[in-house]
Write a structure and sequence with these properties.
- The complex is a heterotrimer.
- By secondary structure, chain A is an all-alpha fold.
- Helices cover about 75% and strands about 0% of the residues of chain A.
- The longest helix of chain A has about 35 residues.
- Chain B is mostly helical.
- Chain B has one domain: ABC transporter involved in vitamin B12 uptake, BtuC.
- In chain B, about 75% of the residues lie in helices and about 0% in strands.
- In chain C, a hairpin with a 2-residue loop joins β9 and β10.
- Chain C is globular, with a radius of gyration of 19 Å.
- Chain C starts with 6 loop residues before the first strand and ends in a 9-residue tail after the last strand.
- The chains are: A mainly alpha, B mainly alpha, C alpha/beta.
- Chains A and B meet through α6, α7 and α14 of A and α6, α7 and α14 of B.
- Chain B: It is found in: Cell membrane.
- Chain B: This is Iron complex transport system permease protein.
- Chain B: Its main location: membrane.
- Chain B: Keywords: Cell membrane, Membrane, Transmembrane, Transmembrane helix, Transport.
- Chain B: It is a multi-pass membrane protein.
Chain lengths: ~325, ~350, ~270
């Protein structure tokens, strides 16, 4: 990519990100002016009503940015590792796996804080991801989109029955879970963000480091091996990062689908197939998308709000349909 | 041509025919046993004689209410919905040549689900309006998926992928409706969503019966065409089948069945998905298996409901039991299917 | 030998999704003969075959069987005259050989009538001709590629059509099986008088087994006739863009192509 285009791209996306962050601080059930937002950011101790409102919104804004970035990168990594255009945590059933583990945690082990959820969510995400991928890649042709999607959808369906079985007899869990299940950034607290950030940072670093090896992997295992890439290692590193990112995000936000599907595809359209650009750009794009979805949710659901997970699924699923319509029949 | 060779071929045909008939008979008997058990089991157990008298319309004190008003509609709803799910699922799976392409996985059931949840939670209506809107929504979703996947020539794989996308979107709508809803209505909707035979009323049954009878018979009649479609588009055209017309008819029947049954009982997980492959394994792959699949569906629903009601301290809706029972089989099926390379 | 209806196509223009692949081809299929369509990859030979088999609707032009346009003939009636073996047919999982072959009888069945005596006989005969009677009750999944191909041809035979179209029936098969399948098809042509039209990749086998050859290049029919009359160095250059020598097949006496590359050419 030409340097000029790169500069434009970076500045445009950063501007968009900053704008959406401001919007996220300003809009909601009570709208706050830009001046107050900036004022609050510089004088955090201010006690006016507006600044209290803005301060309330800081953690969710911060979290929507990191969660979006993590989901975007996670999707990019999974698509690259599986060489499959529709790999996404929600399609692979990873989110449902995390849900099941978290719900079981709430119901059987009485966990109740984000720092405890996360271990359950990570374990659930990892187990499901490996399971679905193993099943989807068995047999002739490896992990084709159709096999992977079906394995994911079917596993997801099975896991959600288990989730229902766990929560139906327990009304209190049902209520807590109902909100967690859709995926929302609104419940974010500093404590929660702090407890997941080590995982997210680790995942992002591994993701960015493995980008150039993933470029080689895109050419096929044989070619990549020929180029001196340790394909097994790259896959494991990529998968680890992907699962860390989406598992940790899911632990705090609940399952948010389709960010990981939409963003890497959009970024591939904008900046070409080079993973070294796609990975960081997916982070920025994911952050923008989730923050904006969160804001849209506040508008649509006014005076309450609509969970970001619903917005992303509603706008993301058509993207999957579009991809399905464009993919050549043979490669299904 | 030697006679021994002829005998080998002819004997094979007859043997498979006998197996098919035997499986159908056994399934029918088993279904009948489960139906009787549904009427017999409960807080108070009545003697077969009392049950029979109630069924014949006699007003037996106590038993008339327990059996006639509670157990009978529950049993009939389970029986009919199970058959509907089984036949519809088998039709989709055979037509798309993929055991995973059942209506509950590719989004058709979710279409009906959205409509039903909308009716229950937002319009606060019940009964026939729910059923009709579920049917209309199911049909619309099925045709939308079909239309989107047509582009050029028909591809089963593309249809499945688009169906999964559609499913995700519809589930987002369902989540939205659940979240917006009054907290008191939610358990009802959630129960409906996981598929339940609780609170079935006798007045729901006749319409369901007619739908199952009508479209079930159509599917049975078109079993031969289904078997030809199973050979793929090219072979089917070559054998003189009007593929577009046949597919349309089969989809229409299957969607009617699935949507109507879903409206009554909620989407009972995995019945549509499991019945076809199980019936196929028992009765053999050479038949269209519409009848055995329907019976298998009924057996699954009735059995799961009995387990859900009586096997644990708390009563689970039937859909959760089928979901959990179905999971291991699903995994087995996925593994086996992928190993033999049976992609779409 | 009964009278086979005349099968021809005129001014055919056809393709996929608006992309025209064959333009303006006229063919008259020689009756009771084996015809082979040859051509380079993506030249439209398969498209031509599929158009003849009504799998692709031609953009313009007409395909006529026995004086009637095929689009006007009821599908089942047409299926009793014209059969096709697709290139990659789909095997329903777990189905047995004889069950699969019996599905070739679909054009002879109606709403009320299931498989009858005649149908069983047709299936048995087809199995017998293909030499797979002993596999009748085996599952198709378990068979080898060559055996599977025989099962598919048996299904097309059970359909008892006068004309049989085959799209690359020997692809993915070892050379032994290729010869075996082509011999079986020749049996069929000689014994039953079935008109056979197929697409083949191998020029030398085409030249040996064909009574008549259609050469297609970039969607146009550029030559047709008996192999010994039309296969020449010029035609091969035109169709495949390949320099070659044409000699006489020492076994069959048909024309035999020996390709020339840039190396290993002994200059006389």
């Amino acid at each position: 990519m030409k340097v000029k285009k790169l500069i434009i791209l970076i500045s445009a996306s950063v501007t968009l990100l900053v704008l959406s962050a401001f919007a996220s601080l300003a809009f909601g059930s009570r709208n706050v002016g830009l001046k107050e937002v900036i004022g609050t950011l510089f004088h955090l101790s201010s006690t006016s009503f507006e600044s209290l409102v803005v301060r309330e919104r800081i953690p969710r804004t911060v979290f929507s940015i990191i969660a979006g970035a993590s989901l975007g990168v996670s999707g990019a990594l999974m698509q690259a590792i599986t060489r499959n255009p529709i790999a996404d945590p929600s399609i692979l059933g990873v989110n449902t796996g995390a849900s099941l583990f978290v719900v079981s945690g709430i119901a059987f082990f009485h966990v109740n804080s984000a720092s405890q959820y996360i271990w359950f969510a990570l374990a659930g995400a990892a187990v499901t991801a490996v399971f679905v991928y193993r099943i989807g890649s068995m047999g002739y042709g490896g992990a084709t989109p159709i096999k992977l999607a079906l394995a994911g959808a079917a596993t997801s369906a099975a896991l959600s029955s288990l989730v229902s079985a766990v929560i139906l007899p327990r009304t209190e869990v049902m209520n807590a879970f109902r909100f967690w299940q859709v995926g929302s950034v609104s419940g974010a607290t500093w404590e929660g963000i702090l407890s997941v950030s080590p995982f997210l940072v680790a995942g992002l670093i591994i993701g960015i480091l493995s980008a150039s090896a993933l470029n080689a992997l895109a050419l096929g295992d044989d070619v990549a091996t020929g180029l001196g890439v340790n394909t097994g290692l790259v896959r494991i590193a990529g998968a680890l990062a992907g699962v860390l990112l989406c598992g940790a995000t899911t632990a705090l936000a609940g399952p948010i689908g389709f960010v990981g599907l939409m963003i890497p595809h959009t970024m591939r359209l904008i900046c070409g197939p080079n993973m070294r650009y796609i990975v960081p750009m997916s982070a920025v794009g994911g952050a923008i998308l989730l923050t904006v979805s969160d804001i849209i949710g506040r508008f649509i659901g006014y005076p309450g709000e609509l969970e970001a997970g619903i917005i992303t699924a509603f706008f993301g699923a058509p993207i999957l349909i579009l991809i399905a319509m464009r993919v050549k029949v043979r490669s299904l | 041509m030697t006679n021994t060779n002829v005998n080998i071929v002819r004997a094979g045909f007859y043997k498979r025919r006998i197996r098919y008939i035997a499986v159908t008979v056994v399934l029918t008997v088993f279904t009948a046993i489960l139906c009787s058990a549904m009427l017999y089991l409960g807080n108070t157990r009545y003697s077969p004689e009392v049950i029979l008298r109630v069924l014949l319309g006699e007003q037996v004190k106590g038993a008339a209410f327990a059996i006639g008003t509670i157990r009978l509609p529950r049993m009939l709803a389970g029986l009919l919905a199970g058959m509907a799910f089984g036949m519809a699922g088998n039709t989709f799976q055979t037509m798309l040549r993929n055991p995973l392409a059942s209506p509950d996985i590719i989004g058709v059931s979710s279409g009906s689900g959205v409509a039903a949840v909308f009716c229950i939670l937002v319009l606060k209506v019940s009964g026939n309006i729910v059923s009709i809107s579920a049917v209309i929504a199911g049909l619309s979703v099925a045709f939308l998926i079909y239309a989107l996947s047509r582009g050029g020539s028909f591809s089963g794989g593309r249809l499945i992928l688009i169906g999964i996308g559609m499913q995700a979107m519809l589930n987002a709508v369902i989540s939205f409706l659940l979240l917006r809803a009054n907290q008191y209505d939610v358990p009802a909707a959630l129960r409906w969503l996981s598929g339940s035979l609780n609170g079935m009323k006798m007045e729901d049954i006749p319409a369901l019966f007619i739908v199952v009878l009508l479209f079930g018979c159509l599917l049975v009649f078109f079993g031969r065409q289904l078997k030809i479609l199973e050979l793929g588009e090219q072979s089917a055209v070559t054998l003189g089948l009007r593929t577009d017309r046949t597919r349309l008819l089969l989809v229409l029947c299957a969607v009617f069945l699935i949507a109507y049954a879903t409206a009554v009982t909620g989407p009972i997980a995995f019945v549509a998905f499991l019945a076809g492959p199980i019936a196929g394994r028992m009765a053999g792959a050479g038949n269209s298996n519409t009848i055995p699949a329907g019976l298998t569906g009924a057996v699954l629903v009735l059995l799961a409901d009995i387990i859900g009601q009586y096997a644990f301290d708390i009563r689970f809706p039937v859909g959760i039991i089928t979901g959990i029972l179905g999971a291991p089989y699903l995994i087995y099926l996925l593994i086996r299917m992928n190993r033999t390379g049976g992609a779409a | 030998m009964k009278q086979t209806p005349i099968f021809s196509a005129s001014n055919i223009v056809a393709g996929y999704d608006k992309k025209i692949i064959i333009n303006n081809i006229d063919v008259i299929i020689p009756n009771n003969k084996i015809s082979v369509i040859i051509g380079a990859n993506a030249c439209g030979k398969s498209t031509l075959l599929k158009t003849l088999a009504r799998l692709i609707k031609p953009v313009s032009g007409e395909i006529v069987l026995d004086g009637k346009q095929i689009s006007a003939i009821p599908p089942k009636q047409l299926a009793r005259v014209l059969g096709l073996l697709p290139q990659a047919p789909v095997v329903p999982e777990g189905i047995t050989v004889s069950d699969l072959v019996s599905r070739g009888r679909y054009p002879y069945q109606n709403f009320l009538k299931g498989l009858g005596k005649k149908d069983y006989e047709a299936v048995e005969e087809a199995l017998e001709i293909m030499g797979i009677t002993d596999l009748a009750n085996r599952s198709v999944d378990e068979l080898s590629g060559g055996q599977r191909q025989r099962v598919w041809i048996a299904m097309a035979l059970a359909q008892q059509t006068d004309i049989l179209l085959l799209d690359e029936p020997t692809t993915f098969l070892d050379i032994t099986y290729q010869i075996e399948i082509l011999d079986l098809l020749t049996d069929l042509n000689r014994k039953r008088g079935t008109t056979i039209v197929m697409v083949l990749h191998d020029i030398n086998l085409s030249a040996r087994y064909a009574d008549y050859i259609f050469a297609v290049q970039k969607g146009n029919l550029i030559a047709q006739g008996e192999p010994s009359k039309i296969i020449s160095e010029e035609l091969m250059k035109q169709v495949f863009g390949l320099d070659c020598a044409v000699i006489k097949d020492p076994v069959s006496g048909s024309p035999f192509i020996v390709p020339k590359g840039r190396y290993h050419v002994v200059t006389a």
